[in-house]
Hints:
The complex is a heterodimer of chains A (227) and B (243). By secondary structure, chain A is mainly α. Chain A contains eleven helices and no strands. Chain A has a domain of 99 residues. In chain A, helix 1 crosses helix 2 and helix 9 crosses helix 10. The radius of gyration of chain A is 25 Å and the shape is elongated. In chain B, strand 6 and strand 7 form a beta hairpin. Chain B is extended. The longest helix of chain B is centred in the first third of the chain and has 21 residues. Chain B folds into three domains: 44 residues, no CATH class; 42 residues, no CATH class; 117 residues, Immunoglobulins (Immunoglobulin-like), CATH 2.60.40.10. The interface between A and B is large, with 88 and 86 residues. The structure holds zinc ion (2 copies). One zinc ion binds next to helix 3 of chain B. The site of one zinc ion (ZN) has 6 residues of chain B, from helix 6.
Amino acid sequence: MKLSGLSNDDLARQCAEDTARFHRHQLHDTVYCLELLRRALADGDHEAFARVYQIYEPQVLRWVYQHPRFADTSESAEYFANQALTSFYFALRGEKLARFETLPQVLTYLKLCVHSAIAQYVRKEQAVFLTELDADTVWDDSKAIGDDLQAAELWKHICELLPHDDDRLLARCVFVQALKPAQIARGYPDRWTTAREVSVALQRIRRHLRKDPLLRRYAGITTADPS
Amino acid sequence: MTCQLPPPLSDDEISAALAGTAEDEVFRHIAACPSCARRFEAARRFEAALSGRLFRWECPDAQTLSEYHLSLLSEDDARWVGEHVSACASCQAELADLVAFLERTESEPVPQATNNTAKVRSLAQLLASHAILGRVLPSPAQSALRGGSENPIVVDAGDITLFLKVEPGAGRPALLGQLAGSDLAAWHGALIQLWQDGALRATAEVSDLGTFRCEGFSLQPFELHIAAPGGPSIVVPEIRLDE
Lengths: 227, 243
Ligand SMILES: [Zn+2]
Ligand SMILES: [Zn+2]
């Protein structure tokens, strides 16, 4: 029977069997799974996408557990699985599935979505930790573009306040990369020989930045607050 | 306000206290002197505001960085991401994680994580802290089946209001949805997930008119998740049809 003649239920049944065979290291076919994925993503058939989700969710959960950073998070594996399958849908719907020719390629991309979901979450947690602010203040996904612009403007202003290359590099290491003085000294031995030297230079930079009216306003420090 | 223990702490002593490298004497001063404690707090807030906005601001998002690794980016994107990665220790570390993760084979046993393995199968619980929580508004008219054409279910989800109708059909019910709100464009193309008994039952996509149609579920309580392509999402916990 031609693939196009099969119902979504038939395809899903075949694909689930082939997936189970794959996990038992038995000979398996990939055409049914590929056709189900094609209908789900390229054709936008939502019944097919629900089947794809149901078939691959257990695999995605196993990948979440295997990820080297999962244990550092405080979220459930189910949360990351949902995030990964949702971004998989957005990334490959429409014409974008055509970039992949084989099932293993598509599944590698799905595995990549698992990594991205966890990595993005870890970034957010690091930012929250750095600022000791609540998550909503630090990271609002819905305003991602505005945030980028604001960060670019803020960084441009800091660069204007710090005309020397070494000072800019230090500010970048501290505020953008969250590096400690010892890490900076190790990373740039040609510029600073000890962590102490880095700390002294940073104190001077902070003193300078803290006096700037625009940065003070940005940080919500009123003129009544002493520097 | 003046320093209670003159001389007041210097700016550099405040910076050292922030970095945790100050002498004990400095911390004792901060604990005992409201004026210098206030300066310390202002400096901490200043540092937090800058770090919070600037931390990894130039980094490509995790998905783009991962696609770079698989050579899936356009030539232009691959060029800037490549240049960035060569100078960014954080992105290099993230890529190293990705490489290690992709190299892991299926046959390896699944490690048992310690603290976050408890099985959560309520979508609302799962997404609670990451999504806008939709609230089903009390229905004015009392009828046997909520969600009928006379009696749509209305969900309040912040800037968005969601109207739901259920067509029982002949053994194959359909859920019809309409989103309304001022910033509807952000929700065009959003993915609808309908969950029942802790599993995904049906999905749909929000049209440019803010409508969607879901099929393939049963006339039982369900949960809805609406994920917009740009990131925000709405979760509506248990929606009952029989109240
Ligand atoms: Zn004092
Ligand atoms: Zn980076």
